[in-house]
Amino acid sequence: MMALRTDQAVGPGTQQGGGSGMGPGAGAGGERTAFQTQSETIGVSDLTRDNGYSAWLNISPVRYLFLQAGYTRSIVYRLDTFSFGIGFNFNLPGM
Q: In this structure, which of 6, 21, 53, 91 has its CB flanked by the most CB atoms within 10 Å?
């Protein structure tokens, strides 16, 4: 049986921090989000919902090499993230 928790704690610390609502990282109107003004944020599960999207591409040009590239877009935070990775498989027979 699963229990659904409606209040969730999100953040690195356990102390409530204060904030003036202005300063580096402030939004377009000068306001800061709950994540920018407190070390711990407690709220409903929709607090971290982003409704963004991601795209990934994986290719293996040779048997032992893997290349990966990705793009993620955060709608709520207006954040674009690009990433890439290179992987090697040294556990192949004959290597």
A: 21
